[in-house]
Amino acid sequence: MLNRLRNEGYSAILLEHEALGRGQTMASQGMIHGGIKYTLSGALSGASEAIADMPEYWSRCLRGEGDVDLRGSSVLSEHFYLWSTNAPGSKLSAFFASHALRGRADKLAPADYPTALQHADFRGSVYRLVDIVLDTPDIVRRLADNARAHIYKIDWRQSRIARDKSSGEATLQIVDGDTTCSVRSRALIFAAGLGNEALLSALGAGKPSMQRRPLQQVMVKHPALPTFYGHCLGASTTPRLTISSHRLEDGCAVWYLGGELAEQGVETLPDQLIAQAKAELGKLFPWIDLGDAAWATLAIERAEPRQKNLVRPDQAYAGWVDTCPNVIAAWPVKLTLAPNLGQQVSTLLQARKILQPGSAREDIELPLPQPTIAATPWAEAFT
Ligand SMILES: Cc1cc2nc3c(=O)[nH]c(=O)nc-3n(C[C@H](O)[C@H](O)[C@H](O)COP(=O)(O)OP(=O)(O)OC[C@H]3O[C@@H](n4cnc5c(N)ncnc54)[C@H](O)[C@@H]3O)c2cc1C
């Protein structure tokens, strides 16, 4: 959003209180999905429609042809795979034969299977999706490099946000050691993930409210693990297991496991969840020996605008906060939808006519330190 708003001419700055990407972004599996995962119930839902164009959108940015320049950032994989151990003729086969896919998934011949599934004992079907996998830390670094001079670290132990009693407008009192500055802005955009809740409550704003959807991801580190990115489909409409692969600095591979395992494992003790994950990988990949692997789990919450019955929202959300006329609350809902969020915020700002045609941008410089880029959960768990 910072990149996009600056490209549009706004004197936008970003204030980070810990490290860039700390929380959900670094914990994400990096998949930029075109929504196939959400179409498994058979019909195209709002979610799959909203994100169908996202892989191509991100690819344009990676080629330097999009709204935001991401040239030079690494992509971990050009494809994500979808595999099933179900027999032919199952509901899944019917789904894949349906029109819902619209050329977004290709059935693979065994010779084209990813290495992890290339084994004589493998039984099932494998599809290749258009979804790409980003190297998330690298993307965050690239986005930060594009706007380094406009990113600051804020220390909330000293700083305050307050709402003016008569106008309702929010202002920031930033204090860092001996430095004090007061920042008034036409738009304060809360895009702080879980942190939005405390920021909104500091202003006494009840709406929009936030929901948390927890997960407990599992990580397994072993040098013999091949690079693999895939959803395994079971009987339900959410993937039974979602695997992404990441490298530690020593070159060792980590498989990062999400999907039903992580959704249903929220209340499970880490050791028990690790035992379940071992059993699951033993069933799905009996040919991979994980005998002396290192294991860890990550409990994490997804922060989203509140929905009825706490379901997953369909799109990114950005809206003015009703009690504070200069505050926008924003949640991308998915890493994939970050451009969708940028677009929504841009539309809200345009409607306020904050940018005057022909006027030069007046950048502010704050005497504040810069934040670092957050570490990944696998680096934190295994190094
Ligand atoms: C395990 C997991 C896997 C996921 N996998 C995928 C995936 O493969 N593909 C996908 O599209 N989406 C995925 N997601 C969702 C995606 O990660 C999130 O939707 C997205 O990263 C949210 O980004 P965000 O910037 O809103 O929040 P966050 O990434 O949580 O970042 C919030 C930032 O705000 C900062 N902050 C917090 N409070 C304050 C404050 N008061 N002041 C200043 N700064 C503050 C934090 O330090 C942090 O840098 C996944 C999520 C999880 C949890």
Topology (elements, then pairings):
Blueprint (H helix, E strand, L loop, with lengths): L1 H6 L6 E3 L2 E2 L3 H4 L3 E2 L13 H6 L2 H9 L12 E3 L2 E5 L6 H7 L7 E3 L17 E5 L2 E3 L1 H10 L5 E3 L6 E4 L6 E7 L2 E6 L3 E3 L5 H7 L7 E12 L8 E4 L7 E7 L5 E6 L1 H5 L5 H15 L9 E12 L11 E5 L2 E8 L6 H15 L19 E2 L3 H6 L1
Parallel strand pairs: 1-9, 2-21, 5-15, 13-20
Antiparallel strand pairs: 3-8, 4-8, 5-7, 6-7, 10-11, 11-12, 14-17, 14-18, 15-16, 16-17, 19-20
Structural features, described:
The protein has 383 residues and is α+β, with helices and mostly antiparallel strands. Among the domains are: 2-22 and 140-209 and 309-382, FAD/NAD(P)-binding domain (3-Layer(bba) Sandwich), CATH 3.50.50; 210-305, Alpha-Beta Plaits (2-Layer Sandwich). It is built from eleven helices and 21 strands. It has helices at 2-7, 24-27, 46-51, 54-62, 91-97, 136-145, 196-202, 260-264, 270-284, 338-352, 377-382; strands at residues 14-16, 19-20, 31-32, 75-77, 80-84, 105-107, 125-129, 132-134, 151-153, 160-163, 170-176, 179-184, 188-190, 210-221, 230-233, 241-247, 253-258, 294-305, 317-321, 324-331, 372-373. The strands form six sheets. It has an eight-stranded mixed β-sheet with strand order 6-7-5-15-16-17-14-18. The longest helix is centred in the C-terminal third of the chain and has 15 residues, at 270-284. The chain is elongated, with a radius of gyration of 22 Å. Flavin-adenine dinucleotide (FAD) is lined by residues 15-18, 20-25, 27-31, 154, 156, 191-193, 195, 199, 215, 217, 258, 300, 302, 331-336.
